[in-house]
Amino acid sequence: MTSALAMSQPAISEKVPGLKAQLRRAERLRKLKAIALVAPLAIFLVIAFVIPISNMLWRSVDNSEVMQVMPETARLLTEWDGKDLPSEAVFSVFAQELRDSRTGGGLGRIGRRLNYEDPTFRTLLTQTLRTLPATTETTWSETLQSIHPRWSETDTWLALQRAAPATTDRYLLAALDLQRGSDGSIERIDENQRVYQQVFVRTLVIAGGVTLICLLMGFPLAYLLATLPTSQSNLLMIFVLLPFWTSLLVRTAAWIVLLQSGGLVNTTLMTLGLIESPLQLVFNRIGVFFAMVHILLPFMILPLYSVMKGISPVYQRAATSLGAHPFAAFWQIYVPQTLSGVAAGTILVFIMAIGYYITPALVGGPSDQMVSYFVAYYTNTTNNWGMAAALGTFLLIATLLLYLVYHKLVNQKQLIRN
């Protein structure tokens, strides 16, 4: 028997390395299959979210126009102390690179960028280039100053210096109604020019109000859908999903027709004798709330319904049978189980509401426009991508911060109840 065991040990030792190799191959194959399954989703997220958001964040600090078109001028201006006029070398290099900027659309790029510093800067560059000689018998500083007196002003060159670095915080500061002073310190802009802080507050107020109204209306409706028999619940669910089958623009236009002075709402109220003159229900904050709640309410109901449908009524009945008041049983037993649906619905509605553009633009008034309106304005009208990206960046940061705070509060409530 001992000899038989001794003879079997080499056979086992020979099989063990082969078995390990097979296990390693099986593990590698399993990992490759998992990667293959996840890869399409990862690629989609990178293309649809990571790249656009990264591009937006970069554009909010991008300041490369002057650096690309006039690299030597930008380098010399960054070394300039900004006290007296630049040296003759700066004038000479600037004249040469300004002449070369006519090719490839360089003049248009730097003109658009410098117009953010001074709205007349592009006109100045065009006029200077039109009369700029190929050579000069005097110094280039004298030649440029003779072409236009603004080249003899320090402020003109300071504007060029501010646009010279490859990156800048100008757009981010401007999105918060801030700017850099002459000494480089951050200061608030003039009170009559402050716009964006109020716009951000208005956006959060409108989005928060719409979310709260949707929650107050959607919770009882979702509870009704979850507790009704299946046939009745399915019929009501059709009415919940019906707005998805209608265009957003059509629904917004329908609210304008309903809420206008001669619309159905005002006509009905006047016919019933409840009002004597038409109410102003459109082109103000009231119209914005009506239209946005109507559009976003299904996005609150569906997450709540999906969670409530999985909650067993046994717990609430048990609490009632043990002597608890029906409302106390509902509030203390049923509602805590719906917190995940409440969190999902509120976050979904709030994120969608905070970026709304068409509905406030059509139904609201001038004082009801949200951040998205100004993002669209800078993107489509002025082509100021830096300012549009800065506003979008702060909107993204505000959304993430509110989501983190809300997520932490929900987790704390769940821990306390558990």
TrEMBL record:
Q: Name one GO biological process term.
A: transmembrane transport
Ranges for domain ABC transmembrane type-1 come to: 200-406
Q: Which InterPro entries match?
A: MetI-like, MetI-like_sf
Keyword check for Transmembrane helix, yes or no.
yes
Q: How does it sit in the membrane?
A: Multi-pass membrane protein
Superkingdom of the source species? Bacteria
Q: Does the keyword Membrane apply?
A: yes
Compartments in which it is found: Cell membrane
Q: What does UniProt give as GO cellular component?
A: plasma membrane
Q: Which UniProt keywords apply?
A: Cell membrane, Membrane, Transmembrane, Transmembrane helix, Transport
Which family does the UniProt entry place this protein in? Belongs to the binding-protein-dependent transport system permease family. CysTW subfamily.
Please state what the protein is called.
Answer: Putrescine transport system permease protein PotH
Lineage of the native species?
Bacteria, Pseudomonadati, Pseudomonadota, Gammaproteobacteria, Oceanospirillales
